[in-house]
Amino acid sequence: MRVSRARAEANREAVIDAASRLFREHGFDGIGLKDLMKGAGLTQGGFYKQFDSKDDLAAQASRRALESALRRWSAAAAANPQDPLGAVVAFYLSMGHREEKMDGCPVVALGSDAARQGVDVKASFEAGIREYLEKLGDWIGAADGEEPGGKAMAILSTMVGAVLLSRAVNDEQMSKRFLKAAAESVLTAASAGDAGLGAR
């Protein structure tokens, strides 16, 4: 039976959504097409009608995952407009986020995998990371004499690294200490000098 154009597009979106979560849980090479399609409630047969390759899906799923993560940052910031960075830090550097392997930050979950992927996947990550940096830059302001984005890059690196390390150990107390130390470091760095925390 022929699938309508609207249904085919809905199926395609469902596959991208499912893949954005399943790749974060298993890695790009840790799950095959059959299980990706099953995660979307579809059979493998329709995959090549919707995507050029698994790499094509990986690039689109990465973009979707980063867009989803950015929406969560924006929602946290909007909930506390007086201290948007503090709100994002509290959510991002939390034990709850540490446990969210399917829905958490794709840079943490897939960053090292992305480094081994093709240019399209890397382009999706680069675009998402640039948006992260832009948000951070808005919240922290520009430090005197510092290259634009340098402080935002240091803060993002600290946050991503802390969540990654917190997930890499079995010791829950060590996990919590990584997150707490990073939160303190980020907020101290952001408030150093004349940089403001308010949204611009």
From TrEMBL:
InterPro entries found in the cross-reference section: Homeodomain-like_sf, HTH_TetR, Tet_transcr_reg_TetR-rel_C_sf
Gene3D superfamilies on file: Homeodomain-like, Tetracycline Repressor, domain 2
SUPFAM superfamilies: Homeodomain-like (SSF46689), Tetracyclin repressor-like, C-terminal domain (SSF48498)
Pfam families from the UniProt entry: TetR_N
DNA-binding region: 32-51
Residues passing through the membrane, by range: none
Domain HTH tetR-type, residue spans: 9-69
PROSITE patterns: HTH_TETR_2
Keywords recorded for this protein, A-Z: DNA-binding, Transcription, Transcription regulation
Protein name: TetR/AcrR family transcriptional repressor of nem operon
